[in-house]
Write a sequence for this structure.
DNA sequence: CTAGGGTTAG
C-alpha cells in the first residue's frame, strides 16, 4: 500500500469514535506497509541473540554454535543475516588472530558465500590479521564448498604471486578436489604431476581425492593404476583410501572382491569403519541378497562400528522390499538405540507391513517409538 | 550451540 493511501486511511480512522479501534487499525495498516513474517522475526531475534552471545569472549570459542547458526540461516537462505553476524565478529580483538579469521572464512564457505569469504580475506591486513597460506587455503576451500570452481583455479593462479604466498600441499589438494568436483579428473591428475615439480609430494589426501573421482566415474582401471603409483611412492593407504576402492568394486559388481578387501584391511592394520561396511552392504542390497547383508550388519556391530543413518536408510527399505518385516522392525529398534533418525515414511512403511501381517503389537510399539522422537 | 578443532579427501 502506498503511503498516500495509508495517510488517507489514517485520516478516515482518526474520525472513529473509539481510540482503541483506531490504534488497532493503524497498526494493521503499518503491518501491510512493511510486512514482517513470523519467520523473519525469528531470524531477527536469532541474529540479535547470536551477537549478544558472542559479545562474551567465552562464547567465541563455541565453534559448533557458530556453525549451527550459519547452517541454519543458510538453509533458510538468510544470507544477509549471515553477513550481518559474521561482519559483527570483526569488532572483536579475536579477528587479529588468523585462526579466528580462518574460521569465519570457512563459515562463509559453508554458507556457499564465496564472494564474502574473499572480501574478508582481502580485508585481513587492514584488520591487523596476518595472512598466510592457511587463510589462503581456507579461501580456496570456501570456494570449493560454494561450488565456485572457476574461482578456485583463478585464485590459485593469481594470488600466490600477488601476495607472496607459497602454495602448500593443502592448496594443491584443494585445487585437485575442485577439478574432480567439476568433472575434470584428467586435469586434476595433471595438477598432481605438477605438484612434484614444485617439490610438493602428493600425500594420502591427494590420492584419496583422485581415487574417489576415478571410481565414481567408473574409471576402474585408472584407479587401480593410481593405487599402484601410490604404493610405489610409499604413501600409506588409510581407511578412506580403502573405502573408495570398496565403493569402486561394488559399483563394478565385484561384491565378493569387496568382501575380501575388508578382510585384507584388517590384516593391514586398517580398521574398517561405517563407510566400509555400508559400501559392502550396498553391494549385497544391489544384488538383492538380504542374508549376506544381515551377516555383514552383524559383523559391523561386532567391529564396534555403530550403524548410522545411511545403514538404516538402506537396510530398512530393503528388508521391506524382501517382505522381511520382522527384520525391518528389529532394525528400527536398533536405530532408536543408536539414536539415528529414520524417515517417517520409512517407519510408516514398516508399520503398515506389520499390520498387514497381523503383527499389531509390533506395529503399535513402532509407532510409539517414532512418536517419542 | 553449551568441550573443542586455523586450512584439504565422506
Amino acid at each position: 500500500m502506498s503511503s498516500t493511501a495509508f495517510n488517507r486511511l489514517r485520516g478516515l480512522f482518526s474520525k472513529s469514535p473509539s481510540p482503541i479501534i483506531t490504534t488497532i487499525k493503524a497498526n494493521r495498516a503499518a503491518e501491510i506497509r512493511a510486512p514482517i513474517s513470523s519467520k523473519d522475526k525469528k531470524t531477527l531475534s536469532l541474529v540479535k541473540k547470536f551477537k549478544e552471545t558472542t559479545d562474551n569472549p567465552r562464547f567465541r570459542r563455541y565453534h559448533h554454535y557458530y556453525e549451527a547458526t550459519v547452517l541454519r540461516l543458510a538453509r533458510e537462505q538468510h544470507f544477509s543475516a549471515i553477513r550481518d553476524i559474521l561482519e559483527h565478529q570483526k569488532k572483536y580483538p579475536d579477528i587479529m588472530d588468523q585462526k579466528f579469521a580462518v574460521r569465519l572464512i570457512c563459515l562463509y564457505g559453508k554458507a556457499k558465500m564465496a564472494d564474502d569469504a574473499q572480501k574478508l580475506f582481502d580485508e585481513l591486513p587492514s584488520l591487523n590479521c596476518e595472512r598466510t597460506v592457511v587463510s589462503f587455503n581456507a579461501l580456496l576451500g570456501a570456494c570449493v564448498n560454494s561450488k565456485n570452481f572457476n574461482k578456485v583455479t583463478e585464485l590459485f593462479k593469481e594470488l600466490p604471486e600477488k601476495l607472496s604466498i607459497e602454495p602448500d600441499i593443502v592448496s594443491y589438494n584443494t585445487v585437485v578436489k575442485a577439478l574432480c568436483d567439476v568433472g575434470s579428473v584428467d586435469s586434476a591428475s595433471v595438477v598432481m604431476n605438477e605438484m612434484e615439480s614444485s617439490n610438493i609430494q602428493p600425500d594420502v589426501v591427494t590420492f584419496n581425492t583422485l581415487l574417489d573421482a576415478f571410481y565414481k566415474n567408473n574409471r576402474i582401471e585408472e584407479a587401480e593404476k593410481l593405487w599402484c603409483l601410490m604404493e610405489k611412492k610409499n604413501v600409506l593407504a588409510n581407511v578412506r583410501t580403502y573405502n573408495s576402492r570398496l565403493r569402486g568394486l561394488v559399483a563394478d559388481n565385484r561384491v565378493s572382491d569387496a568382501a575380501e578387501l575388508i578382510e585384507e584391511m584388517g590384516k593391514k592394520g586398517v580398521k574398517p569403519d561405517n563407510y566400509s561396511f555400508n559400501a559392502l552392504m550396498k553391494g549385497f542390497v544391489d544384488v538383492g541378497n538380504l542374508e549376506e547383508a544381515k551377516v555383514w550388519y552383524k559383523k559391523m556391530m561386532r567391529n564396534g562400528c555403530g550403524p548410522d543413518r545411511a545403514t538404516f536408510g538402506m537396510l530398512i527399505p530393503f528388508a521391506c522390499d524382501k517382505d522381511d518385516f520382522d527384520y525391518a522392525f528389529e532394525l528400527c529398534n536398533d536405530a532408536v538405540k543408536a539414536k539415528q533418525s529414520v524417515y517417517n515414511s520409512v517407519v510408516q512403511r514398516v508399520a503398515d507391513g506389520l499390520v498387514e501381517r497381523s503383527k499389531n503389537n509390533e506395529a503399535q510399539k513402532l509407532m510409539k517409538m517414532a512418536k517419542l522422537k
User: Anything to note?
Assistant: Residues 1-31 of chain A have pLDDT under 50 and may be disordered.
